[in-house]
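Sample 3 of the quickstart, ligand uridine-5'-diphosphate:
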Amino acid sequence: MRNYFSGKTVLLTGGAGFIGSNITEKLVGFGCNVVCVDNFISGRKVNVREFANESGNPRIDNYTLIQADVSQPAGNYLPEGIKLDLILHFASPASPPRYQDNPVETYLVNSIATHYLLDFLKRTNPEGRFVFAGTSEAYGDPQVHPQTEEYWGNVNPNGKRSCYDESKRLGETICGVFYRDFGMDSRILRIFNTYGPKMDPTDGRVIPNLIMQALKNEPFTIYGDGSQTRSYCHVDDLVEFILRMSSKEGLNGETINIGNPGEFTIVQTAEMIHKLVSPDTEIRFEHQDMPTDDPTRRQPDITKAKKLLGYEPQVSFEEGLKRTIEYFKKEIK
Ligand code: UDP
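Result:
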Protein backbone atom coordinates (compact mmCIF):
# COMPACT_ATOMS: atom_id res chain seq x y z
CA MET A 1 0.00 0.00 0.00
CA ARG A 2 2.81 2.39 0.93
CA ASN A 3 4.27 1.86 -2.56
CA TYR A 4 1.07 2.95 -4.24
CA PHE A 5 0.88 6.19 -2.25
CA SER A 6 4.55 7.19 -2.15
CA GLY A 7 5.17 10.33 -4.22
CA LYS A 8 1.55 10.62 -5.40
CA THR A 9 -0.28 13.95 -5.34
CA VAL A 10 -3.55 13.51 -3.47
CA LEU A 11 -6.33 16.06 -3.19
CA LEU A 12 -8.26 15.48 0.03
CA THR A 13 -11.44 17.53 0.36
CA GLY A 14 -12.68 17.89 3.92
CA GLY A 15 -9.14 17.29 5.10
CA ALA A 16 -9.72 19.15 8.38
CA GLY A 17 -12.75 17.04 9.23
CA PHE A 18 -12.88 14.04 11.54
CA ILE A 19 -12.26 11.36 8.93
CA GLY A 20 -10.19 13.58 6.60
CA SER A 21 -7.67 14.50 9.27
CA ASN A 22 -7.25 10.86 10.30
CA ILE A 23 -6.60 9.96 6.63
CA THR A 24 -4.05 12.78 6.38
CA GLU A 25 -1.92 11.31 9.18
CA LYS A 26 -1.46 8.13 7.14
CA LEU A 27 -0.98 9.81 3.75
CA VAL A 28 1.75 12.18 4.90
CA GLY A 29 3.47 9.21 6.55
CA PHE A 30 3.40 7.33 3.24
CA GLY A 31 5.18 10.23 1.51
CA CYS A 32 2.22 11.57 -0.50
CA ASN A 33 1.93 15.21 -1.43
CA VAL A 34 -1.31 15.95 0.36
CA VAL A 35 -3.36 18.92 -0.79
CA CYS A 36 -6.06 19.44 1.81
CA VAL A 37 -9.02 21.68 1.00
CA ASP A 38 -11.53 22.67 3.65
CA ASN A 39 -13.90 25.60 4.21
CA PHE A 40 -14.09 24.87 7.96
CA ILE A 41 -17.89 24.67 8.10
CA SER A 42 -17.51 21.48 10.10
CA GLY A 43 -13.75 20.86 9.74
CA ARG A 44 -11.58 22.14 12.60
CA LYS A 45 -8.19 23.91 12.63
CA VAL A 46 -7.24 21.86 15.69
CA ASN A 47 -7.45 18.68 13.59
CA VAL A 48 -4.68 19.87 11.25
CA ARG A 49 -2.40 21.59 13.74
CA GLU A 50 0.30 18.89 13.32
CA PHE A 51 0.45 19.71 9.61
CA ALA A 52 -0.14 23.48 9.40
CA ASN A 53 0.13 26.47 11.72
CA GLU A 54 -2.68 28.86 12.69
CA SER A 55 -2.29 30.88 9.48
CA GLY A 56 -2.45 27.71 7.39
CA ASN A 57 1.26 27.59 6.50
CA PRO A 58 2.58 24.03 6.29
CA ARG A 59 4.72 22.57 9.07
CA ILE A 60 5.85 19.71 6.82
CA ASP A 61 7.06 19.66 3.20
CA ASN A 62 4.46 17.32 1.77
CA TYR A 63 1.33 19.10 3.02
CA THR A 64 -0.64 22.07 1.66
CA LEU A 65 -3.76 23.53 3.26
CA ILE A 66 -6.16 25.52 1.10
CA GLN A 67 -9.14 27.21 2.70
CA ALA A 68 -11.82 27.10 0.01
CA ASP A 69 -15.28 25.88 -0.80
CA VAL A 70 -15.08 22.90 -3.16
CA SER A 71 -18.59 23.64 -4.47
CA GLN A 72 -16.96 25.93 -7.02
CA PRO A 73 -14.90 24.83 -10.04
CA ALA A 74 -11.64 23.24 -8.86
CA GLY A 75 -9.58 25.52 -11.14
CA ASN A 76 -10.68 28.48 -8.95
CA TYR A 77 -8.76 27.32 -5.87
CA LEU A 78 -6.14 24.78 -7.00
CA PRO A 79 -2.64 25.85 -8.10
CA GLU A 80 -2.36 26.22 -11.86
CA GLY A 81 -1.01 23.17 -13.69
CA ILE A 82 -1.44 20.78 -10.73
CA LYS A 83 -1.71 17.11 -11.73
CA LEU A 84 -3.68 15.01 -9.28
CA ASP A 85 -3.18 11.26 -9.05
CA LEU A 86 -6.01 10.72 -6.60
CA ILE A 87 -8.95 12.72 -5.28
CA LEU A 88 -10.56 11.70 -1.99
CA HIS A 89 -13.83 13.64 -1.76
CA PHE A 90 -14.61 13.71 1.96
CA ALA A 91 -15.94 17.25 2.39
CA SER A 92 -19.45 17.46 3.86
CA PRO A 93 -21.02 17.98 7.24
CA ALA A 94 -22.05 14.51 8.45
CA SER A 95 -23.78 15.08 11.76
CA PRO A 96 -27.59 15.47 11.41
CA PRO A 97 -27.73 18.77 13.39
CA ARG A 98 -24.78 20.18 11.40
CA TYR A 99 -26.08 19.28 7.95
CA GLN A 100 -29.57 20.45 8.87
CA ASP A 101 -28.06 23.82 9.90
CA ASN A 102 -26.23 24.01 6.54
CA PRO A 103 -28.62 22.32 4.08
CA VAL A 104 -27.57 24.22 0.94
CA GLU A 105 -23.82 23.84 1.56
CA THR A 106 -24.48 20.14 2.24
CA TYR A 107 -26.39 19.36 -0.93
CA LEU A 108 -23.96 21.38 -3.05
CA VAL A 109 -20.82 19.76 -1.68
CA ASN A 110 -22.13 16.27 -2.32
CA SER A 111 -23.53 16.99 -5.76
CA ILE A 112 -22.03 19.89 -7.73
CA ALA A 113 -18.65 19.60 -5.99
CA THR A 114 -18.50 15.93 -6.99
CA HIS A 115 -19.21 16.98 -10.57
CA TYR A 116 -16.62 19.79 -10.57
CA LEU A 117 -13.92 17.57 -9.06
CA LEU A 118 -14.49 14.70 -11.49
CA ASP A 119 -14.68 17.14 -14.40
CA PHE A 120 -11.37 18.70 -13.34
CA LEU A 121 -9.73 15.26 -13.10
CA LYS A 122 -11.11 14.25 -16.51
CA ARG A 123 -9.61 17.36 -18.14
CA THR A 124 -6.27 17.39 -16.34
CA ASN A 125 -5.46 13.72 -15.66
CA PRO A 126 -8.07 11.29 -17.02
CA GLU A 127 -6.00 8.39 -15.66
CA GLY A 128 -6.43 9.72 -12.11
CA ARG A 129 -8.53 7.99 -9.48
CA PHE A 130 -11.54 9.36 -7.57
CA VAL A 131 -12.91 8.03 -4.28
CA PHE A 132 -16.25 9.32 -3.03
CA ALA A 133 -17.27 9.28 0.63
CA GLY A 134 -20.79 7.93 0.26
CA THR A 135 -22.89 6.96 3.23
CA SER A 136 -25.11 4.34 4.83
CA GLU A 137 -27.74 7.11 4.71
CA ALA A 138 -28.15 6.06 1.07
CA TYR A 139 -30.22 3.21 2.56
CA GLY A 140 -32.46 5.63 4.51
CA ASP A 141 -34.67 3.77 6.99
CA PRO A 142 -33.78 0.35 5.61
CA GLN A 143 -36.28 -2.42 5.03
CA VAL A 144 -33.48 -4.91 4.37
CA HIS A 145 -31.25 -5.89 7.28
CA PRO A 146 -28.26 -5.97 7.34
CA GLN A 147 -27.75 -3.67 4.36
CA THR A 148 -25.95 -5.04 1.30
CA GLU A 149 -24.71 -2.90 -1.57
CA GLU A 150 -27.47 -4.27 -3.84
CA TYR A 151 -30.21 -2.73 -1.69
CA TRP A 152 -31.52 0.55 -3.17
CA GLY A 153 -32.73 1.99 0.09
CA ASN A 154 -35.83 3.57 1.57
CA VAL A 155 -35.16 7.31 1.54
CA ASN A 156 -37.54 10.25 1.97
CA PRO A 157 -36.74 12.60 -0.96
CA ASN A 158 -38.10 15.66 0.81
CA GLY A 159 -37.55 15.51 4.56
CA LYS A 160 -35.14 16.93 7.14
CA ARG A 161 -32.39 14.46 6.29
CA SER A 162 -32.82 14.70 2.50
CA CYS A 163 -30.25 17.49 1.96
CA TYR A 164 -27.65 14.93 3.05
CA ASP A 165 -29.11 11.57 2.00
CA GLU A 166 -30.31 12.57 -1.44
CA SER A 167 -27.24 14.62 -2.32
CA LYS A 168 -24.97 11.73 -1.33
CA ARG A 169 -27.10 9.52 -3.59
CA LEU A 170 -26.73 12.07 -6.42
CA GLY A 171 -22.97 12.08 -5.72
CA GLU A 172 -23.03 8.34 -6.37
CA THR A 173 -24.94 8.94 -9.61
CA ILE A 174 -22.30 11.44 -10.75
CA CYS A 175 -19.48 8.97 -9.97
CA GLY A 176 -21.37 6.37 -12.01
CA VAL A 177 -21.76 8.70 -15.01
CA PHE A 178 -18.05 9.56 -15.07
CA TYR A 179 -17.19 5.84 -14.76
CA ARG A 180 -19.64 4.45 -17.32
CA ASP A 181 -19.82 7.28 -19.82
CA PHE A 182 -16.33 8.78 -19.60
CA GLY A 183 -14.22 5.78 -18.55
CA MET A 184 -12.98 7.39 -15.33
CA ASP A 185 -11.74 5.37 -12.34
CA SER A 186 -14.32 6.41 -9.75
CA ARG A 187 -15.09 4.40 -6.63
CA ILE A 188 -17.79 4.74 -3.98
CA LEU A 189 -17.56 3.94 -0.28
CA ARG A 190 -20.73 3.73 1.79
CA ILE A 191 -19.53 4.71 5.22
CA PHE A 192 -21.50 3.58 8.29
CA ASN A 193 -21.38 5.29 11.70
CA THR A 194 -17.81 6.08 12.66
CA TYR A 195 -16.30 7.42 15.89
CA GLY A 196 -12.91 8.08 17.42
CA PRO A 197 -10.24 10.71 18.09
CA LYS A 198 -10.54 14.03 16.22
CA MET A 199 -14.32 13.86 16.28
CA ASP A 200 -15.85 17.19 17.28
CA PRO A 201 -17.18 16.76 20.84
CA THR A 202 -19.91 19.31 20.08
CA ASP A 203 -21.10 17.98 16.74
CA GLY A 204 -24.33 16.51 18.11
CA ARG A 205 -23.85 12.89 17.07
CA VAL A 206 -24.65 10.15 19.49
CA ILE A 207 -21.14 9.07 20.56
CA PRO A 208 -19.76 12.57 21.31
CA ASN A 209 -23.04 13.60 22.96
CA LEU A 210 -23.12 10.60 25.29
CA ILE A 211 -19.40 10.68 26.14
CA MET A 212 -19.48 14.40 26.91
CA GLN A 213 -22.61 13.92 29.04
CA ALA A 214 -20.91 11.10 30.98
CA LEU A 215 -17.79 13.21 31.53
CA LYS A 216 -19.87 16.14 32.79
CA ASN A 217 -22.06 13.89 34.94
CA GLU A 218 -25.20 14.89 33.04
CA PRO A 219 -28.08 12.55 32.11
CA PHE A 220 -27.83 10.80 28.74
CA THR A 221 -30.09 12.33 26.07
CA ILE A 222 -31.94 9.41 24.46
CA TYR A 223 -34.08 10.24 21.45
CA GLY A 224 -37.26 8.16 21.40
CA ASP A 225 -37.12 5.00 23.51
CA GLY A 226 -33.50 4.32 22.52
CA SER A 227 -34.28 0.97 20.88
CA GLN A 228 -33.05 2.18 17.47
CA THR A 229 -29.69 0.66 16.51
CA ARG A 230 -26.41 1.78 15.00
CA SER A 231 -23.20 -0.13 14.16
CA TYR A 232 -20.09 1.84 15.06
CA CYS A 233 -16.68 1.59 13.41
CA HIS A 234 -13.52 2.96 15.01
CA VAL A 235 -11.86 5.51 12.73
CA ASP A 236 -8.57 3.54 12.56
CA ASP A 237 -10.43 0.62 10.98
CA LEU A 238 -12.33 2.94 8.69
CA VAL A 239 -9.13 4.61 7.45
CA GLU A 240 -7.61 1.21 6.71
CA PHE A 241 -10.64 0.37 4.55
CA ILE A 242 -10.38 3.73 2.78
CA LEU A 243 -6.67 3.39 2.04
CA ARG A 244 -7.18 -0.11 0.64
CA MET A 245 -10.09 1.09 -1.52
CA SER A 246 -7.93 3.97 -2.79
CA SER A 247 -4.81 1.97 -3.58
CA LYS A 248 -6.01 -1.38 -4.93
CA GLU A 249 -6.06 -1.92 -8.68
CA GLY A 250 -9.19 -3.11 -10.47
CA LEU A 251 -11.87 -1.55 -8.25
CA ASN A 252 -13.01 1.00 -10.87
CA GLY A 253 -16.75 1.60 -10.64
CA GLU A 254 -17.18 -0.42 -7.42
CA THR A 255 -19.45 0.55 -4.51
CA ILE A 256 -18.45 -0.95 -1.17
CA ASN A 257 -19.93 -0.76 2.34
CA ILE A 258 -17.38 -0.04 5.05
CA GLY A 259 -18.06 -0.16 8.75
CA ASN A 260 -18.20 -2.49 11.72
CA PRO A 261 -21.20 -4.86 11.83
CA GLY A 262 -21.35 -4.89 15.67
CA GLU A 263 -24.88 -3.54 16.28
CA PHE A 264 -26.05 -1.76 19.46
CA THR A 265 -29.22 0.00 20.55
CA ILE A 266 -28.80 3.60 21.71
CA VAL A 267 -29.58 2.53 25.29
CA GLN A 268 -26.86 -0.17 25.11
CA THR A 269 -24.47 2.49 23.74
CA ALA A 270 -25.20 4.73 26.74
CA GLU A 271 -24.78 1.81 29.13
CA MET A 272 -21.33 0.96 27.73
CA ILE A 273 -20.17 4.56 27.98
CA HIS A 274 -21.53 4.80 31.52
CA LYS A 275 -19.65 1.61 32.52
CA LEU A 276 -16.38 3.04 31.15
CA VAL A 277 -16.68 6.59 32.52
CA SER A 278 -18.54 6.45 35.82
CA PRO A 279 -19.59 2.92 36.80
CA ASP A 280 -20.11 3.88 40.45
CA THR A 281 -22.82 6.42 39.72
CA GLU A 282 -26.46 5.79 38.91
CA ILE A 283 -27.25 5.87 35.17
CA ARG A 284 -29.73 8.61 34.25
CA PHE A 285 -31.65 9.06 31.00
CA GLU A 286 -33.36 12.15 29.62
CA HIS A 287 -35.78 11.02 26.93
CA GLN A 288 -36.34 13.46 24.08
CA ASP A 289 -38.49 13.30 20.93
CA MET A 290 -37.34 10.99 18.18
CA PRO A 291 -36.13 13.14 15.22
CA THR A 292 -38.18 12.73 12.02
CA ASP A 293 -36.99 10.06 9.56
CA ASP A 294 -34.44 8.72 12.07
CA PRO A 295 -33.51 5.22 10.80
CA THR A 296 -34.66 2.49 13.20
CA ARG A 297 -31.98 -0.09 12.39
CA ARG A 298 -28.62 0.08 10.69
CA GLN A 299 -25.98 -2.59 10.19
CA PRO A 300 -23.56 -3.03 7.31
CA ASP A 301 -23.11 -6.28 5.46
CA ILE A 302 -19.35 -6.07 4.81
CA THR A 303 -18.94 -9.34 2.90
CA LYS A 304 -17.89 -7.40 -0.20
CA ALA A 305 -15.33 -5.27 1.69
CA LYS A 306 -13.80 -8.38 3.26
CA LYS A 307 -13.50 -10.06 -0.14
CA LEU A 308 -12.31 -7.13 -2.24
CA LEU A 309 -10.30 -5.19 0.35
CA GLY A 310 -9.10 -8.16 2.42
CA TYR A 311 -9.82 -6.45 5.72
CA GLU A 312 -12.28 -6.48 8.60
CA PRO A 313 -12.44 -4.28 11.71
CA GLN A 314 -9.93 -5.01 14.47
CA VAL A 315 -10.91 -2.50 17.17
CA SER A 316 -13.69 -3.68 19.54
CA PHE A 317 -16.38 -1.19 20.55
CA GLU A 318 -15.15 -1.18 24.15
CA GLU A 319 -11.53 -0.54 23.16
CA GLY A 320 -12.56 2.14 20.65
CA LEU A 321 -14.73 3.89 23.23
CA LYS A 322 -11.83 3.91 25.72
CA ARG A 323 -9.59 5.65 23.17
CA THR A 324 -12.31 8.15 22.29
CA ILE A 325 -13.05 8.93 25.94
CA GLU A 326 -9.33 9.66 26.49
CA TYR A 327 -9.35 12.03 23.51
CA PHE A 328 -12.43 13.90 24.72
CA LYS A 329 -10.98 14.18 28.23
CA LYS A 330 -7.95 15.97 26.74
CA GLU A 331 -10.22 18.20 24.59
CA ILE A 332 -12.17 19.56 27.55
CA LYS A 333 -9.15 20.36 29.73
N1 UDP B 1 -29.25 9.94 19.37
C1 UDP B 1 -29.69 9.92 20.71
N2 UDP B 1 -29.18 10.87 21.55
C2 UDP B 1 -28.28 11.82 21.17
C3 UDP B 1 -27.84 11.83 19.82
C4 UDP B 1 -28.36 10.88 18.94
O1 UDP B 1 -30.52 9.09 21.10
O2 UDP B 1 -27.86 12.63 22.00
C5 UDP B 1 -29.74 8.89 18.44
C6 UDP B 1 -30.34 9.40 17.14
O3 UDP B 1 -31.73 9.63 17.28
C7 UDP B 1 -30.05 8.26 16.19
C8 UDP B 1 -28.74 7.66 16.71
O4 UDP B 1 -28.61 8.13 18.05
O5 UDP B 1 -31.05 7.28 16.27
C9 UDP B 1 -27.51 8.06 15.92
O6 UDP B 1 -27.56 9.44 15.72
P1 UDP B 1 -26.37 10.28 15.11
O7 UDP B 1 -26.75 11.72 15.22
O8 UDP B 1 -25.07 9.88 15.72
O9 UDP B 1 -26.26 9.91 13.56
P2 UDP B 1 -27.13 9.12 12.48
O10 UDP B 1 -26.68 7.71 12.54
O11 UDP B 1 -28.60 9.25 12.83
O12 UDP B 1 -26.79 9.82 11.21
